[in-house]
Amino acid sequence: MALKSNREKKIRRSCRKKDSKPIPGCSEEERPPVCQEGGQSFTQSNTPVQHQKFHTGERPYECPKCQKRFQTSSNLLKHQRIHTEERPFHCPDCRKGFKHNSNLIRHRRIHTGERPYECPKCGMSFSQSSNLICHQRIHTRERPYECEQCGKSFSHRSHLIHHQNIHAEERPYKCGECGKGFNQRSQLIIHQMIHTGERPYECPECGKRFQTSSTLLVHQRIHRERGPSAAPTAGRASSATPTSSPTGASTLGRGPTSVPSVGRAFQTALP
């Protein structure tokens, strides 16, 4: 009873939010019908009948394939595209088809570059509201998806699904070369580089290449620890390397630490 009462309250609040303003110049007879439950008014005579189904919970339209029920025939038609694979909405840029017009609108933002959903904290924008909601969890540190096995929580549902494979010991991603299985697809991609020899991550300092970004980050600490004076020191060391003249003699200077002086010291030490 409590659940039903809460549902009715929620529906009434939704109904009141959609309440339309009175149309100026209309008499009592001409005014649109009003919902007796929540107070929402309507402009079409058949709309109140459909709207009442939200309050009664009636779902008279049933899918013949899976028996799922809907409140309106239009919602049933949208649902049936799952079974028929009908995609009547096509992108004018790439001709990709979609089952719903809303999906086409979201897809077209790939071509237009439109990002209408902006984060109020950092100003980063997104093409979909769901991506913005996921992003905002960085600021709020919200982790709504919790693992029932160990209690570890995640900010994204997909991360939880990957994590749960650890407990289930399920390894659905198999290597085509050696048959080794992995919990996550990303692990399989990294593993396959062993067979292909691919090293896509290059160090901008020395050009050395690595299979994973994490390995590259560990390597880059070497350059940071050496500091900015590491390169000039190496340069001086290389400039001090002896070079040979066409006659084979050393071209180092004849100072007190020159090679000939060292040679004379060895000569005097000999018997």
Residues in helix, %: 40-55%
Unreliable residue runs: 16-31, 229-271
Counting DSSP H or I runs of 4 or more residues, the number of helices is 10
How is the CATH topology of the domain at 47-86 named?
Answer: Double Stranded RNA Binding Domain
CATH architecture assignment name of the domain at 47-86: 2-Layer Sandwich
Structural class: mainly alpha
Strand order of the largest sheet: 1-2
Question: Secondary structure elements and their pairing?
Answer:
Blueprint: H1 2-17, H2 47-56, E1 61-62, E2 69-70, H3 73-84, E3 89-90, E4 97-98, H4 101-112, E5 117-118, E6 125-126, H5 129-140, E7 145-146, E8 153-154, H6 157-168, E9 173-174, E10 181-182, H7 185-196, E11 201-202, E12 209-210, H8 213-226, H9 230-239, H10 259-269
Please describe what this structure looks like.
By secondary structure, the protein is mainly α. It has a domain at 47-86: Classic Zinc Finger (Double Stranded RNA Binding Domain, 2-Layer Sandwich). The chain contains ten helices and twelve strands. The protein has a two-stranded antiparallel ribbon. The protein is extended, with a radius of gyration of 36 Å. One of its GO terms (molecular function) is DNA-binding transcription factor activity, RNA polymerase II-specific. Residues 9-19 have a biased composition (Basic residues).
In short:
It is built from ten helices and twelve strands. It has helices at 2-17, 47-56, 73-84, 101-112, 129-140, 157-168, 185-196, 213-226, 230-239, 259-269, and strands at residues 61-62, 69-70, 89-90, 97-98, 117-118, 125-126, 145-146, 153-154, 173-174, 181-182, 201-202, 209-210. The chain starts with a helix and ends with a helix.
